[in-house]
Amino acid sequence: MMNIKKTLQNRKLAPKKKLGQNFLVHRETAARIVQLAGVSEKDTIVELGVGLGSLTTPLAEQAARVIGLEIDRGIIKWLQDEGGLADNVTLIHQDLLKADFRKLAQDCGGKLKIIANLPYSISNPLLFKLIENRDIMEWAVLMLQKEVGLRIQAKSGTKEYGVLTVLLGGCADVEILMHLGPGQFHPRPKVDSVVTRIQFHPLPERAAKLPPYDATVLRKIVNAGFQKRRKTLVNGLSTSPLLSCSKKEIIDVLKKIGLTPDIRPERLTIEDFVGLTRELKS
User: Fold this and answer.
1) DSSP characters over 210-254
2) Which domains does the chain have, with CATH numbers?
3) In 52-211, where do the E strands start and end?
4) What phi, psi does 80 have (nearest 5°)?
5) Residue 32 burial (C-beta neighbours within 10 Å; 0-12, 13-18, 19+)
């Protein structure tokens, strides 16, 4: 285990609660994550949330280049002055949710390959950001709260199934690579974690079989449906300010694609939501 506590105390780099900082402290675990991610010597990797460099060091040893984004200026200064980072690492002071992924893709010379130990408080908005930029994503390997990791690969009909499950299912494949307990981090989180791989390109087989659809309309429908998941899908969609469809129109469309008017949103597959999107738009 790295002497994280001593380093933080000596450099007055106490983990900031408002930033949700939980530093990975086991070198072996960090190296294993890089190995499971399949990083090659030709890759340029974007690391979101560098922290104290636990993942950055093994990434730099394996990849051609690492671009690290970090919001904490104090940590960046320490890493640049005393972190012993390799010459192929570039650090950028950046709020992850405000990062320009398209510019990063241009700098990388191709689709993005992302590794991140994310603050759990920004996991959901960051996942939506990845979905919005799916056309420039190759893959993302993310440390997530276990609950979120299970949710994004949930099956229809389960309580975990929701908005992110559907939207990711329409453009990517999700796989859990590792389970990690609180003892792998400092400070210790109150929850278990998972390392999750989200593969955007090449397009997974299930997503590739989907007919063309309007992603913006799909997101509106999915958000409206799950906003009131205890209600039927018809009631959720017809009363949502996100859509301008009458209850009759929605019932007619559901019947057309082979679904009953009393169905609830968690019962629809990704294919069902895409079919609904296409019919409602037309």
Assistant:
1) SPP--HHHHHHHHHHHHHTTTS-HHHHHHT-TT----HHHHHHHH
2) 4-208 (3.40.50.150), 215-281 (1.10.8.100)
3) 65-70, 89-93, 112-117, 137-145, 173-180, 185-186, 193-199
4) -70, -35
5) middle
pLDDT digits (tens, 9 = 90+) for 131-165: 999 999 999 999 999 999 999 999 999 999 999 99
pLDDT digit string, tens, across residues 47-89: 999 988 999 999 999 999 999 999 988 889 888 888 889 999 9
Q: What is the chain's length?
A: 282
Using a cut of 0.70, tell me whether the model's pTM lies above it: yes
Looking at residue 125, its amino acid is P
Burial per residue of 154-163, b for 16 or more beta-carbon CB atoms within 10 angstroms, e otherwise: bebeeebbbb
What amino acid occupies position 229? Answer: R
